[in-house]
Amino acid sequence: MTTPSGDGSGLRTVLAETALDITPSPPPLDSIARRARARRHRRAAALAASGAALLAAPFVIASAQRASTPDHAAVPPAAVSSPPPSVSPTPSRPLSPVRVVEPGERVTAPGGAELWLTEQGKHWALPGEPAQSRSVTDGNIDRREPGISMQQEGAFLSGLYYGADGVALVTVTTATGPVTASLLTLPGRPGWGVWYATVATGGTAVDEVTMADASGRTLHSLPLR
What we know:
By secondary structure, this protein is of the alpha+beta class. The protein contains 2 helices and 14 strands, in the order ααββββββββββββββ. The protein is rod-shaped.
């Protein structure tokens, strides 16, 4: 064995010789190979799991959509019931509803005559003629008792009705048959109203004027012949 010199070169020589005398142990190749295979297996498993999750996602979404969407084919349609046929009552006598008008509001009758009501009474005018009126406040009528009046001017008939609650029908009986009049009144309960009608010809004779309630019960009649 070489003795080391004082400049250190001999020490390096001794160490080099010693290293040559050392036989290195073989590397653990089997252990390294097992670890490499284990890493490859883990990586492959992770990739497989990711792929499976990606493949399963559309199926899960589709299943959720099917679950949230009702199956219309499985739900029977609601039964549509036909309404029962309506049966219209057939009154024994036609009823004319009472029209409520404001004071001074003008109503045009068939043939062109105009009518309007004020608190003082009935007003009317035929085409091309001056206005006329019939008072309900001058004492000529007693509104405490049922009554009816009539004015005839050619084919146009009109008059007052008063003194009875629930008047719903005024009928004019003529030689050619009954005529149902139209009715007007003011708001509230004035206790009177106006009726008007048009007959076929100006020479039609009137036999009677009758007012009745909604049930057809006669409240008052005015015989004219």
